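Hi R.,

Here's the chain you asked about this morning:
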Amino acid sequence: MEIYTFLLANDNPACRQHLRRLVEAQPGWVVVAEAGDGAEAVRLAADCQPEHSTIAAMANLPGGDEPLQQPPVPLRVLLADDHPVVRTGLRNELARHPDIEVIGEAVNGDEALHLAETLQPDVLVLDLAMPGLKPVQVIRRLRARPAPPHILVLTAHGDKELVQGMLQAGATGYLLKDEDPAAIVDGVRAVAQGRPWLSPAVAESLAGQPVGAEKELVAEKQGAPLSVRELAVLRLLASGKTDQEIGRKLGIAERTVRYRLRNIYDKLGVNSRVEAVAWAVKQGLTGE
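And here is the predicted structure, written out as C-alpha cells:
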C-alpha cells in the first residue's frame, strides 16, 4: 500500500484537529506535521521532505501570501449519559459525520455541568436519568451563563410534564431514545442553530389540544384567533426557520417577527418556541 504523508497548515487548532481526523480516516494517509502559520508551514515542508507530500493549507495563515479558504469548523458536542453503551453508540454514530465532533463525555449531572462550562460545546446531549445534579438544574445553570450551549435532551421518558419542565428550563430540543439514529444527528444540527427539535411523539404530547373545527377556540382562550400573518409566521417557525429567515420570507423586519411570536405565544397559552412548534405540528401547520 502506498503511503501519502500530509502537512496540515492552519492557524485554528480545532480545524487542524478536524483535518487530522479526516486525513487519518483514509488508508495509507499519514499526518507527519502541523503548522500554525505560513512561515512554519514553509519550514516544516522543507524539513520533512517526504517521498509523497501533500500540504493541506486551508486557512488565511499568518505569514502566508495567498488567501486560502477556511474549512467549516465542526459542531462541538458533549455527551452526558450514565450508560456506557448509549454513549458509545452515540459517539460512533456522530463520528460518521465530519461536521460533528464529540469533545467530551459525562456520566452524571455534576460532570455534565463542569464539562459544559470547561469545554464550551455547541451542543450538550443530555440524558435525564443520571445520578448527581438534576438535569433541570444543569439546564438552568448553563442557560444562566453567557453564550450557553444549546441543549438536546435525549431520554427514554416522554411524560408531558417532564418535557414541559425541560423546555421551560431552557432545552432547545427533546428526543426519545427510540428515534432513528439519523433523527438524532439531525436534532444535533438543528438545535446547534437554535431551532426547536422534537420527537413526533413528544410534539403530539405537548400539543394535546383540540383540532379541526376547534382550532380557533384554542387560540380564543387567550385572545383573538391567530391572524393570517401570525399563521404564516407559525408555519415557518414549525418548518425550522429562524426569526431572520421568517422575516426575509414574509418581507418583514426581524423585530416584527418577534412581536408576532409574542402575540402567538399569548394566544396559544404557551411560553416558548418549542411549545408553539409542537402546537403547530399537531394542527398540521408545517408546510410553507
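One quick note: Confidence is low (pLDDT under 50) at residues 50-62, 64-69, 209-224.

Cheers,
M.
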